[in-house]
Amino acid sequence: MTSLESLTSPVAFLRQMINSLPHEDALQAYEAFWEAEGRAISFNVDRAGTPWLQMFDPFGERVDTIQFPPEYWRMLRAGYKAGVVWRAFEDDSLLAPYLLGYITSFYDPGVYCPYIVSLSTAIPLHKYGNEVARTRFLPPLLRRDDTVWQGATWMTEARGGSDLGAAVETIARPEGDHWLLTGDKYFASNAGAELAIVAARPEDAPQTVRGLALFLVPRLRKDGRLNYTIRRLKDKIATRSVPTGEVELRDSEAYLLGRPEWGIYLILEALNLSRVANSVASVALMQRAMADALHFAEGRTAFGRPIVEHPLLRQQFEEHMHELRLAFVLAWESVRLLDEVWRETPRYPARYHLFRLVAHLAKYWTADIAAQAARWAMEVYGGMGTLAEYGVERWLREAMILTIWEGTPHRQILDGLEAMERKAAHQKLFEHLAATTPVNPQALEAMAARVEDHLALPGDEKEATAQPLFRDLAVFTAEALAGR
């Protein structure tokens, strides 16, 4: 049972929620960095707003350098040094990178974006790149010093992100030992990265998702010139600690990852890595918002005592604490299942589709309740909560990004339905819960029957009425997992 006091430290919370917390010394050292330096840097970067793009050097040559204060780079590289990418390969496990991501997101969810897209670049390169590409490009992503390279995942174009089959207009054509890509990416997170994985359509491929392939695009060409350019950076409400831009690809050198016909599967593998990270970040943000609310409630006096001692507010803290624990166990289950299946390749085993469903449930529900908790934290502050100088309003801004990143709630519901209809993932979920948790058999049977009844509805009705079922299934799964 976690206490309110554990809210103030992400490592303390993780220690209470996870038996045998791996790399605890490294996690504590990373948290200590954030407390000593990172917290203040993050606050100032957020207040400064969008970073700026230096497009040319004094001689008129295109450089496309993104300008942050020097302290930003120290904050950013701290996570790379701690192991947000390299520990996955040293441990042959994703647990430590996601734990480091949790700590990062407690302090700055935006910084977690470069980390997870770098990991989402390194893993498909490791799994699907040819020997030449792996030898050339993977070692810089695994460095443990200031020379470390960053990755990025660029899929979305101006026509939108959900309907990839229709929206991706970037074209790829073969050119000797590599490919040339031409197109525009509209939401390019971590613009300026040394490497990016990019969705594109080979010439003459079908105009559907089956026609997409995944490519690795370096920042520099073989001759040292820029391989892509940045049209502009986005001015966002939050996640200001990660530059998001519009990237132009013009005969950009690229390297095919895996088989061309596997493209959509590889794209979704990368997105699922980030969806799990989004769940982890949402829970960490929820903890941070509650920690800030607790700090204020313990210091604010009304009617002769701290407001945290008033029964209504104390009850609200306890209710949010209960939801925080449920959200964590659901998000962490998606991490655990991912850690089992991340090495798999198409065609995937049944366990992979169980992971997919849990990842969709976790991404959908954790982002939703994180936004609610962030709004409530502002309410605890009262009028002070609306003022940027006190910082709590930031968590609502950040939470609203997390509901959209890597697929809106609408997308998670539809993809979850697809996993249940086509892969029977719900049956695997109920078998998993029955085998690993003390879930009530009658409750499990009732939920299973409800899902089957819903899947039997006509198509439009099934989609239109899916949200209550999906939310209830997420909560049911979280409560079952919490009973372990």
SSE layout:
Elements: H1 10-17, H2 24-48, E1 52-56, E2 62-67, H3 70-82, H4 86-91, H5 95-107, H6 109-128, H7 131-141, E3 153-154, H8 164-167, E4 171-175, E5 178-189, E6 195-202, E7 213-218, E8 229-233, E9 244-257, H9 263-299, E10 301-302, E11 305-306, H10 311-341, H11 350-381, H12 393-402, H13 409-423, H14 425-436, H15 441-455, H16 459-464, H17 466-482
Parallel strand pairs: 3-6, 4-6
Antiparallel strand pairs: 1-2, 4-5, 5-9, 6-7, 7-9, 8-9, 10-11
Helix pairs in contact: 2-3, 2-5, 5-6, 5-9, 6-7, 6-9, 9-10, 9-11, 9-12, 10-11, 10-17, 11-12, 11-13, 11-14, 11-17, 14-15, 15-17
Description of the molecule:
There is one protein chain. This protein has helices at 10-17, 24-48, 70-82, 86-91, 95-107, 109-128, 131-141, 164-167, 263-299, 311-341, 350-381, 393-402, 409-423, 425-436, 441-455, 459-464, 466-482; strands spanning 52-56, 62-67, 153-154, 171-175, 178-189, 195-202, 213-218, 229-233, 244-257, 301-302, 305-306. The model has no long low-confidence stretch (mean pLDDT 96). α6 (109-128) packs antiparallel against α7 (131-141). With 484 residues, it is of the alpha+beta class. A hairpin with a 2-residue loop joins β4 and β5 (178-189). The strands form three sheets. It has a five-stranded mixed beta barrel. The longest helix is centred in the middle third of the chain and has 37 residues, at 263-299. 46% of the residues are buried. The protein has three domains: 4-141, Orthogonal Bundle (Butyryl-Coa Dehydrogenase, subunit A, domain 1); 153-262, Butyryl-CoA Dehydrogenase, subunit A, domain 2 (Beta Barrel); 264-482, Butyryl-CoA Dehydrogenase, subunit A, domain 3. The two termini are 12 Å apart. 57% of the residues lie in helices and 14% in strands.
